[in-house]
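= Protein in question =
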Amino acid sequence: MDEPNPHRGITMHKIKFGGGVAGLTFTIGSMAIFLASLPQLWYFLAFAAALGIGIAAALRIAHRRAPTQPGLTR
């Protein structure tokens, strides 16, 4: 079984995806694979999603209040 040149497998850094539908599909697929294999990560996913939605809402509200002033949201 000790081969001189073992197969190194697929490396994640060589898979290229841009934004848009392809990137979203790849991201959701990767998350589904990890969550299926590690069910204890569901708590982390729920916390991360809630935190992300909260931060996005706060930035949106801050941007609507002062859209012409430079700062964190510009």
